[in-house]
Amino acid sequence: MTQFINTRETLVTEAIDGTLRTGGGRLARLDGYPHVKVVLRTDWDKSKVALVSGGGSGHEPAHAGFVGQGMLTAAVCGEVFASPSVDAVLAGILAVTGKAGCLLIVKNYTGDRLNFGLAAERARAQGLKVAMVIVDDDVALPDLPQARGVAGTLFVHKIAGALADQGADLETVEKAAQRVIGGVVSIGMSLDTCTIPGSPKEARIGPGKAELGLGIHGEAGVEQVDFSTAADAMEMVVDRLAPKLGPGPHVALLNNLGGATPLEMAVLAEELLGSRIGSQVRWMVGPAPMMTSLDMQGFSVSLMPVSQADEAALSAPAAPWAWPGCLSVGPVAVLPLPDGLSPIQPMPSASPETRAFIESCCRRLIAAEAELNALDAKSGDGDTGSTLATAARALIGALDRLPLADLTQLYRAIGLELSQTMGGSSGVLLAIFFAAAGDASASGRDAIGALSAGLERVMQVGGARPGDRTMIDALAPALEALPQGFGPAAQAARCGADHTATITRARAGRASYVGQDKLAGHNDPGAEAVARLFEHLAG
């Protein structure tokens, strides 16, 4: 997989320097590249307990992103997924440790334990007070004698960091860290493996599958599970975490493992807070990328019981840019629409024939969702099918409140419904189409005349004409042939839709931004939807 790197050998040192250049002078690194990669505070005077953590790179923004007042004093960075050397850890300890001592916060991996542990012994031999805690928050492998340390480590950074910043002694800071470690539980899930720089991507997780309980170094999870929705994914994660929770309020840390979009992470946050343990989650850190696994398309959830002292420590100011803050969660606030935007609902009326006609059209559009999306992906953003299907589903759900027996009011009601439920420019144009059809029907025009008036208004407002490679290329000839019946209308729509495959320069819509080579040979998805709809009506 192609990546924005220069060489694997210089990746980590270049990334650290790139981070430090925008640090505003608050952070620095020790000399000693490439073997010693230590990021530390420049405002540190050694009068308080120092906090040192670190490990392999590839988890950015951890660990260097959490160096600053209120959290870490120094971060010792290794190569990608590799523990830093004993000398590098010792250099970090010696650089920041004064009479108050130093606490090492280590994730439970063999390399980290050994290298940090030996560095601690060497530092103690030089007369320094050094304590070390091991974070083992991962609950994915219950039979493992030593659980892995994952994103719950950040709770230790924050709470121990707040106490150290307030002047607590080493014993107090260490005890607090151990208490946090004893209460934190974490587990992750991913839809894909990560891409290690300079190495081919491992295709371990198949289509339709997710991996539950995988590690932050790309290790295989405890099991592969069927994936369907974000809700089901979060339910599986909650099932593993719930038995580990005690009573009382908890804080959740929702961590992006690197490749999930902010949109996905927001949905996962909603699912977590709406789950069976959601009532116990009073605060949330994130969702944000905090301890990633390169580009892994996954997430992890860490939970910790919270005392009043913990709440204060989690909410205490922290300088590191990577800490997203710990915020209380609450209900969604909903305000009424401004005056003039609350729709006046028409009086519903029944017409079994009209109801069946509308529902049949909507079902056809829903059935074509995937194929229209695939067609749109060749010339647009791949969502035409979903946009139409979403509107169709909403229209089916609105049938009981529509004036089905009054065609004039029905056109207007459909336009209003589409303006509220159908996204993008397509929703606006179809809302205009049906609103204008309703006005024409009120003026005495028959159904075909009303729909033709709607098309004229769409062309006037939208600026597209036949030949511009839009749905109008199928809709205009279909309406022109409609007085002869659905069969001729369907033939005309099909000819118009197929003709769009020969139009290599779109003059309207998203396809107008796409190169000619991407358009040739592919029907416009909007025109194709119109053609399929009329073919369905023709039977």
Automatic annotation (TrEMBL):
Gene3D superfamilies: 1.25.40.340, Dihydroxyacetone kinase, domain 1, Dihydroxyacetone kinase, domain 2. Residues 352-539 form the DhaL domain. Keywords: ATP-binding, Kinase, Nucleotide-binding, Transferase. GO terms for molecular function: ATP binding; glycerone kinase activity. GO terms for cellular component: cytosol. Residues 7-323 form the DhaK domain. InterPro entries: DhaK_dom, DhaL_dom, DhaL_dom_sf, Dihydroxyacetone_Kinase. GO terms for biological process: glycerol catabolic process. This is Dihydroxyacetone kinase.
